[in-house]
Write a structure and sequence with these properties.
By secondary structure, the chain is α/β, with parallel strands linked by helices. 38% of the residues lie in helices and 21% in strands. A 7-stranded mixed beta sheet has the order 2-3-4-1-5-7-6, sandwiched between helices. Helix 1 packs across helix 5, helix 2 packs across helix 3 and helix 5 runs antiparallel to helix 6.
Length: 190
């Protein structure tokens, strides 16, 4: 079993903002895998399906970003999935726009959603896929930057390409394991 959690904020006002890249990747995965997120439970919007015989759960927490840990801890407790099979996808201001970074574990850094998850789980040894949204411009408040929409059509294209690559990375991880997924995540952009 694999649980894939994309972080974001529920509500139309947050749709397609930098902070919602986790939701955006889950949307792409949902379409690629034919898994509909139709169940509202454990503080999340959940879809269940199978990939190559492996049960896959896609999740968008509905608690708002800073309380993401509520949903994640309930999921882990309910499904009893091993932590190495729980992948969290989220935005990263320290990565250039559209760049991916796949890691087996790590700290929360400056990300409040990850702080919530690590704080409530009491551990940080679970995989994560960070999607770069770029550094905040000079003079911007961090909250305003991550809650902003992409500035140009080119930015939107770069970010959408990153969502596609992130989804391919997740599918590769489920089907072929960690090493293969690392190669996919680090593949040169076309």
């Amino acid at each position: 079993m694999h649980i894939i959690i994309g972080l974001g904020n529920p509500g139309k006002e947050y749709h397609r903002t930098r902070h919602n890249v986790g939701f955006d990747v889950i949307d792409v995965l949902s379409e690629k895998l034919g898994i509909t997120l139709s169940k509202n439970a454990m503080h999340g919007l959940i879809g269940e399906g199978f990939v190559g015989g492996e049960k896959v759960i896609l999740v968008k927490p509905q608690t708002y970003m800073n309380l993401s840990g509520q949903c994640v801890t309930e999921l882990v407790s309910w499904y009893k999935a091993p932590m190495e099979n729980v992948l969290v996808i989220f935005d990263d201001i320290d990565l250039p726009l559209g760049k991916l970074r796949l890691r087996k574990d790590g700290s929360a850094g400056t990300h409040n959603g990850m702080r919530s998850i690590i704080g409530l789980l009491g551990r940080q040894d679970f995989p994560r896929l960070r999607v770069g949204v770029g550094k905040k411009p000079e003079g911007w408040e961090l909250a305003n930057w991550v809650l902003s929409h992409y500035a140009t059509e080119e930015d939107r294209k770069v970010q959408f390409d990153a969502f596609l690559l992130a989804a391919d990375t997740v599918i590769d991880w489920i089907k072929n394991g960690w090493d293969s997924a690392m190669r996919t995540a680090n593949a040169p952009k076309k």
